[in-house]
């Protein structure tokens, strides 16, 4: 099992550019989520999904879009990148329900917006 | 609005000492209170978790103490080792009422000196 995989590992964008961060899991988990990690701010939830076709907003959703067409994949789209979106992004997955607290994280994508 | 408050931001402990990290929460509807450990350049990984109807849970050198009336919980690392040097996050999850979120504290950077 590869677990949770994320691509790319590093990315540099210019302000206004768009891009998609990829996330995939092979554990057949219903729940998937995206977090951003900034110094002193911990991990903040951007968007999450409880199953294919179902997504919802987290704490900091502005500037990001998600979709979930399959159980395995949960891409995060930045429509028009801004310097404030410079961060490390983590994708995670878990079983739904009472197992939600046991999330498996990917290795992260370090994004810099110039 | 920070739903889970964590302290201290950083902690230095001598090898063999006890590391203590504290968290406080506001929402009494949370279902589980996990702790995650993150090494540099890696994604967070679940360390230990506790339900709100249990006052203490121990796994090896790691213990969670939970005070429901004070809405506080803490992580104790006994006999701290240099290999425990990492960032630790407390978190709280809730699935009832369609909430379906895992909310993290700001993190504590622990350094264990030999």
Would you spell out the secondary-structure blueprint of this structure?
The complex is a heterodimer of chains A (114) and B (114).
Chain A: E1 4-7, E2 10-13, E3 19-25, E4 31-38, E5 42-51, E6 54-57, E7 64-66, E8 76-78, E9 87-94, E10 104-105, E11 109-113
Chain B: E1 4-7, E2 10-14, E3 19-25, E4 33-38, E5 45-50, E6 56-59, E7 62-67, E8 72-77, E9 86-94, E10 101-104, E11 108-113
Parallel strand pairs in B: 2-11
Antiparallel strand pairs in B: 1-3, 3-8, 4-5, 4-9, 6-7, 7-8, 9-10, 9-11
Overall description:
The complex is a heterodimer of chains A (114) and B (114). With 114 residues, chain A is mainly β. Chain A contains no helices and 11 strands. The radius of gyration of chain A is 13 Å and the shape is globular. Helices cover 0% and strands 55% of the residues of chain B. Chain B is built from no helices and 11 strands. In chain B, the strands form 2 sheets. In chain B, strands 2, 4, 5, 9, 10 and 11 form a 6-stranded mixed sheet that branches. In chain B, strands 1-3-8-7-6 form a 5-stranded antiparallel sheet, with no helix packed on it. Chain B is globular. Chain B has 114 residues and is mainly beta. In chain B, a hairpin with a 4-residue loop joins strand 7 and strand 8. The chains are: A mainly beta (114), B mainly beta (114).
- Describe the biggest sheet of chain A? 7 strands, mixed
How far from one another are the termini of chain B? 38 Å
Helix content of chain A: under 10%
Written as H for each helix and E for each strand, in order along the chain, the element string of chain B is EEEEEEEEEEE
Q: Count of helices of chain A? A: 0
What number is the mean pLDDT of chain A? 95
- Estimate the global geometry of chain A from the Cα principal axes: globular
Count of DSSP strands of chain B: 11
Strand content of chain A: over 45%
Could you say which structural class the secondary elements and strand pairing of chain A correspond to? mainly beta
Rg of chain B: 14 Å
Low-confidence stretches of chain A: none
Helical residues, percent of chain B: under 10%
Order of helices and strands of chain A: EEEEEEEEEEE
Shape category of chain B: globular
Structural class of the secondary elements of chain B?
mainly beta
Strand proportion of chain B, as a percent range, falls in over 45%
Average pLDDT of chain B, rounded to a whole number, is 94
Count every helix of chain B, treating DSSP H or I runs of 4 or more residues as helices.
0
Distance, first to last CA of chain A? 36 Å
Q: Which oligomerization state do the chains in this entry correspond to? A: heterodimer
């Amino acid at each position: 099992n590869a677990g949770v995989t994320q691509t790319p590992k590093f990315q540099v964008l210019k302000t206004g550019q768009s891009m998609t961060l990829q996330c995939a899991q092979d554990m057949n988990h219903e729940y998937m989520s995206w977090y951003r990690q900034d110094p002193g701010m911990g991990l903040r939830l951007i968007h999450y999904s409880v199953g294919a076709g179902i997504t919802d907003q987290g704490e900091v959703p502005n500037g990001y879009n998600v979709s979930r067409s399959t159980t395995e994949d949960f891409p995060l789209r930045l429509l028009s990148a801004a310097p404030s979106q410079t961060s490390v992004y983590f994708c995670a997955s878990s079983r739904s329900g009472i197992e939600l607290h046991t999330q498996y994280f990917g290795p992260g994508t370090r994004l810099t917006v110039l | 609005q920070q739903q889970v408050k964590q302290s201290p931001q950083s902690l230095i402990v001598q090898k063999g000492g006890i590391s203590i990290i504290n968290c406080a929460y506001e929402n009494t509807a949370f279902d589980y209170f996990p702790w995650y450990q993150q090494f540099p350049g890696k994604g967070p990984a679940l360390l230990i978790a506790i339900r709100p109807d249990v006052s203490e849970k121990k796994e090896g050198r790691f213990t969670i103490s939970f005070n429901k009336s004070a809405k506080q919980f803490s992580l104790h690392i006994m006999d701290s080792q240099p290999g425990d040097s990492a960032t630790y996050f407390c978190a709280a999850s809730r699935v009832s009422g369609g909430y379906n979120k895992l909310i993290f504290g700001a993190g504590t950077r622990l350094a264990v000196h030999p």
